[in-house]
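User: Predict the full complex structure for these chains.
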Amino acid sequence: MQIQLNYKSGVPPYQQILEQIKYAAASGTLAKGDSMPPIRSLAEKLRVNRNTVAKAYALLEQEGVIVTRPGKPSVLAGNQSPLKKGVRDKILDELIDAVLVQAHHFQFRPADLLKRFQKRLSDFGNTTANSKNAAKG
Amino acid sequence: MQIQLNYKSGVPPYQQILEQIKYAAASGTLAKGDSMPPIRSLAEKLRVNRNTVAKAYALLEQEGVIVTRPGKPSVLAGNQSPLKKGVRDKILDELIDAVLVQAHHFQFRPADLLKRFQKRLSDFGNTTANSKNAAKG
Amino acid sequence: MQIQLNYKSGVPPYQQILEQIKYAAASGTLAKGDSMPPIRSLAEKLRVNRNTVAKAYALLEQEGVIVTRPGKPSVLAGNQSPLKKGVRDKILDELIDAVLVQAHHFQFRPADLLKRFQKRLSDFGNTTANSKNAAKG
Amino acid sequence: MQIQLNYKSGVPPYQQILEQIKYAAASGTLAKGDSMPPIRSLAEKLRVNRNTVAKAYALLEQEGVIVTRPGKPSVLAGNQSPLKKGVRDKILDELIDAVLVQAHHFQFRPADLLKRFQKRLSDFGNTTANSKNAAKG
DNA sequence: GTGGTCTAGACCACC
DNA sequence: GTGGTCTAGACCACG
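Assistant: Here is the predicted structure of the six-chain assembly.
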């Protein structure tokens, strides 16, 4: 699972973690019964205090998204109502628009922006392919 | 210009104002040289404190989006970011990464994501090109 | 670090704080990686409101002088301005012009002014070079 | 006479005008009995509202630096106590230091800074040589 | 403890 | 009327 924290977005980190895990669950990246990454290692990876991750997990349990049991890894609860395609598209479009607006403001030429996006996309594919193994290892 | 504040998102109001004005500027709803709504009236309309809007305006000026001068209404500047290229690229990359992560969670296939991005990009280009006429009409 | 506020100058306090911290950073009184005085204590010492100091810190971060992170003390960044070269040059030229105008009013001969500038420049270089030891001594 | 307004210094324009005229008088750039530039033309030259210049002139008269008579051009009053050399030097040094600090922050190399200063200095010499005639004409 | 944000209300300088 | 600044006091998120 890939989590991106943005410190300048103004959204509190615990909330960013929360949302991204929820999305991952809703989209099927995480399946029912999968175990979540341990708080400690996730905190370390994100370079964030454990309390911050713990808070996200606590809220996730409160919302019924995960089940935590002391001593055992947290696992994803079942029956996630997956987001409808329309909703998912809307979320993505908003993020894409943010890119477009900023790029326009920076006076990027569309072709250059597209190139940058493609490059980033292929880079991302490679790292996530590796990270899956890294996470398991 | 239409600004909608979302109090549940966790994004601070001054930043939502900032982004939406940037959006309006980028999409052509506001044209270069147009004068901005006065801080006071915008604050009243959004039902926030004057200082909150003032903060957004101050940041917009620092980013080179608008020009403010005491006694005069703020006006939209010619889009010129005062930031170094490296800094601009970094900001853009972070926004792109947010898209990639979300798309990955939603299990979009890279090809589909790219297609969606391209579509959005060309739509955006048309909007900004047409908006001048739309505003006049 | 020593900060002196002058209330008669007309320069807003937040800006005096900004400049003097910049000065301390440039002259080596503060070294890269040093942590800054907390906003609250500095405000108390200067007998100004917390927000006033906070504003100075926020601007210092935007200029790349310090790095702030909620929960952690602010630290001095490696000096790297995020501004475009053209913008940096313009800022410098304005400061230089202020010198020239004043010298002209004082009827300094250009040669004398240049000499004075050179002296000050080399003195400044020595100060920053020695300050590390001075701070330690 | 050369007046430089800096809108980002935080010092109100009327005060900048006031100070620079006082310095000019104190340093001898303006001599007793010289007539001041008319409010209207100075305001135009500085791209500032007439009220702003008028305010500066009013304060100058209040301080006894100039004498204004309706319908006639304002003239410089006599007996300006010229600033001592030590004071003048200190004022200049402070302005020079501001340049050095900012240049250091921008990581200008001393040689480059010096070069820039020299260039600006020679440019300034040329413009002021012309402006004297322009002002008279 | 740290920094970040918002409100409420005040004063200033400029046009 | 405009934008800019400051104070006083509150709440939040993070470590």
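Chain A touches chain B through 48 residues (CB under 8 Å).
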